[in-house]
Fold this sequence. Notes:
Its EC number is 5.6.2.4. This protein is α/β, with parallel strands linked by helices and about 750 residues long.
Amino acid sequence: MQSDILTGLNPAQRQAVEQTNGALMVIAGAGSGKTRVLTYRIAYLIQQGIDPFNILALTFTNKAAKEMKERIALIVGQENARNIWMGTFHSVFAKILRFEAEKINYPSNFTIYDSADSKSLLNTIIKELQLDDKVYKVSIVQSRISGAKNNLISPKQYLENVDIQADDRAAGRPKLGAIYQEYWQRCFKAGAMDFDDLLFKTNILLRDFPETLLKYQDRFRYILVDEYQDTNHAQYLIVKKLAARFQNLCVVGDDAQSIYAFRGANIQNILNFRKDYPDYSLIKLEQNYRSTQTIVNAANSVISNNRDQIKKEVWTENDQGDRIKIFKANSDNEEGMFVAQSIFELQHQHHSTFNDFAILYRTNAQSRALEEALRKINIPYKIYGGLSFYQRKEIKDLLAYFRLTSNPNDEEAFKRIINYPARGIGKTTMDKLTLAANENDTSLWEVANSPGQYNCNINAGTRAKIESFTTMIKSLRSELHKEDAYLMAEKIAKSSGLLKELYNDKTPEGVARYENVQELLNGIKEFAETQKEQDAEAAPKLEDFLLDVALLTDADQDNEDEERVSLMTIHASKGLEFPYIFIVGMEENLFPSQMSVNSRSDLEEERRLFYVAITRAKQKATLSYATSRFRWGNLIYSEPSRFLDELDDKYVDWPVQMQRTQVTEKRTGGAIFTKKINPPKPKNLKKIPRPSAGNPDQRDYANVEDIRIGIQVEHGTFGKGKVVAIDGVEPNLKATVYFPAVGQKQLLLRFAKLRVIG
Length: 758
Ligand SMILES: Nc1ncnc2c1ncn2[C@@H]1O[C@H](COP(=O)(O)OP(=O)(O)OP(=O)(O)O)[C@@H](O)[C@H]1O
Ligand SMILES: [Mg+2]
């Protein structure tokens, strides 16, 4: 068995797997097997007799962790794989904090605020402090606070730090520190942590409680970190503290793929490794197993333009592969059509599935034109990021009920549902409650429970409404730890009135919302069942589900059963691979982004991003740019990205003279490019009886017998096209028609309503 593992590795990878003791850093190019090394190393450790409980593996997404676990399970068995501590930094340390929260004065059922909760709270604070929300833009405030937390700067330190204060004054935002402090306290009162807190508080815990640190050092005797180049300071310190005792630490990364500096990732962590572990070993992997030679070489030619790079020669024994195609479009819509058509054609040519395709873009807003084009020709797709299931209003509403039941001090959950479904508790009442909570330094929940005691000046009628709400939550709370997750969720959905409210809304949107809520309940049922499958004695509670949901990342919301094209930002594509990659919007001021072009280090980060994008492709990479596109509501004319020029010409097909068809797209007025196809000569002409006369649907359209291979037809939705094949037997005769606008379609002649035009 053991030798089986090692034969799947080249000598350098093998060394990285076998050298299990001491500090080891693998710095290697994209697709060279870093993640594979981690997977095999864990399996190998277990085969060597290491208890899986003693292994901690930190991945970039939960999905990566899940995949890794599945592979490991194949080698060492389910039981062993299950017991490894594996997940993202946030998910692993959130679980640890659940056990240890009371030490740092948090309840063990603390809520995790997502980015929208944080924004909502920051907005409230900005208003309360009477600051101008155009100067104190919530996104800027949020990222400033996040930056501080990732560098382990508390509000107190923030306010005392002369340089930070000078920076904020210079930027015209002297009150940032005050906002941070208030935000910090409000989260604390609400028993809530945001994402950055999960790392910050873990650091505090490990710093201030030596026996706790010792406990986890002793547990995590072997630590492995994927995508090490994108760890931030807070993550770096956690790893350093935990590994200090045994120093069995293996990190893998690629400095050329460091793309999260804007969120505090610190490339210095790679350079510090040498200082922190002077006896460390460094292994370089240079053979790429993922991509064609063309893709590897093209990616190398781009990244060689960066000055700050650790030298490595990435090469591959894979086939040479096709050149990278560059497509020039007149508009974003035309670019979308090109991508959709190409996917359609490639999928047919190579008999591949839609899962083999990914479209990558620099900004989420670019997905709109792509989605439209894909929808037009019925290509199923899935967007990572954007408005995911868990960000929908009705889902967030029900989750807020769950959260409040679990932690009634959760301020954001309270605000969200106190008057939903409507209970006649209006804004004035909420303002009074909030004011009293702030003045008395307590939570909204406390005040709501005894408005009289806090002199809220709320009339008896409203008080009764508040009381009936708090009574309901308290009664649900009393059952929270008794009921199983699904039953509890269902009970909350019913008693809150939310299910009924949605059920009564018979508009199509209302019906969809009701179904979504049912879907959430199904999800909880499934969650509980999976937990029980893994551990027969587990009695999963609703709070376990809440933790799971709070820690989902974009890439985790994947349903592998469905065949769909993936759409995502390049940032979200890290670590993934697809046979066919489309990188769209290769334009100056979009990619590289406008904000990056004036600073060399920012531009280098954009270039690394481009390197990440190209290296996701296994077989084929296609790049495109539009000479005009709608951005922020305006039509913008743009130049091709400088990164296109940086690709070595040897590996690229520049836009060739493309044939334009006569089909014009109504919305943009732009022409659509198509490939010329030669339909087969007419043959197999089938005689078909006329459809029954008088069928009104057929009146203006061709009789089935008029349809022959090679003729030109027109379809109401797909436009003009040419018949390339006829199959089947009546009454189910089908014509395959090539429509320049949408590619090839197979149509049932009975229903197709084709007009013969030549
Ligand atoms: N020795 C090997 N033999 C066969 N296939 C390999 C070998 N090493 C890696 N691969 C395959 O190459 C592909 C890339 O590997 P992997 O994802 O581990 O690379 P990576 O270095 O983590 O890439 P990235 O930098 O993009 O995260 C995977 O499909 C993997 O299974
Ligand atoms: Mg990887």
